[in-house]
């Protein structure tokens, strides 16, 4: 049986929400991200095949049903999840960012075609903060964009309160807000029952208002993300490609062995016939016997020195952030764990008390004996060190 698009979208949002609360570098998180991307790609193809939206035709916003409006967010969610996928190198990261940018630009174009975003918001986000040279104007532009996003979030919270939905907690994210707009079993039963038509219209209007507000909020985030991706792409394209060194040959290995042998000798023997086998360069008095040019030893060194003539006067990045985090994780420099799971975990004393209560088992008897020895050791310690014995306050 084929899964409905609402069920497919809800499953992808649940997976993406779970992955957003985990470290991106972990394999478990990447598994969740790949599962969400697979569901979202399938969902996007089904939305296109069903022709739910036709922004290039004469279709207007009023022609779209309320329960279909939420599927306008599919490209936005797909871009957000795609941007969190782990990459193996700069070229892979550039490809990921390119796909995410295309999804976001399709989402922005669709909202503008249907007139969901008003002219004030279009003008506000038409200017890129990175293109403003004046620092004061750039700061003012960022403040205006932040205020607009905060205003939209407050309106969404107000509509959720009117719909008797719990307010979003600190741990919730935009994926949870989108998932709350999907039709649930309770909503479908309300729509198919013979209840008052005015109540149904109020629920429909409230749901449509919440969906449109969330679309406008996602529009502001999409514009900001597109600008950030453009800046990251510029850095990635300016990153130098990793040097491709030729594999060592037998002659190179022989030279390296000779160099290591000469390191442990007091007097290095003179090479007969000159360094190139064509005779000595100078005589005993230091007079040149034939013309010569001082160059690096090999062609690889010459190419390297030539490449260093024209380059930036600062150090360029040699790896991506994901590569650095992966190396740090292999070194054990990233602390994992903690959080509610670690807080709810039993302490060693609590676990020992729980294990000692397993009567009738050999394991329980061993734990009970270990608890008895621990309590006896503590009793002996308290007898030998009464309370306050170590704090004499210089009284002797």
Short summary:
Helix content is 62%, strand content 0%.
Description:
This protein has 396 residues and is mostly helical. It contains 16 helices and no strands. It has helices spanning 5-20, 27-50, 66-69, 74-83, 90-114, 119-126, 135-162, 174-180, 185-192, 197-238, 250-263, 299-307, 321-331, 339-344, 348-356, 362-384. Helix 15 crosses helix 16 (362-384). The longest helix is centred in the middle third of the chain and has 42 residues, at 197-238. The model is unreliable at 185-195 (pLDDT under 50).
SSE topology sketch:
Elements: H1 5-20, H2 27-50, H3 66-69, H4 74-83, H5 90-114, H6 119-126, H7 135-162, H8 174-180, H9 185-192, H10 197-238, H11 250-263, H12 299-307, H13 321-331, H14 339-344, H15 348-356, H16 362-384
Helix pairs in contact: 1-2, 1-8, 2-4, 4-5, 5-10, 7-10, 15-16
Mean pLDDT: 81
Taking all Cα atoms into account, the compactness measure Rg is 34 Å
Order of helices and strands: HHHHHHHHHHHHHHHH
Strand content: under 5%
Most strands sheet = none
Low-confidence blocks of residues: 185-195
Q: How far is the N terminus from the C terminus?
A: 85 Å
Give a count of the beta strands, DSSP E runs of length 2 or more.
Answer: 0
Number of helices: 16
Helical residues, percent: 55-70%
Q: Based on CA inertia axes, which overall geometry fits?
A: flat
Structural class: mainly alpha
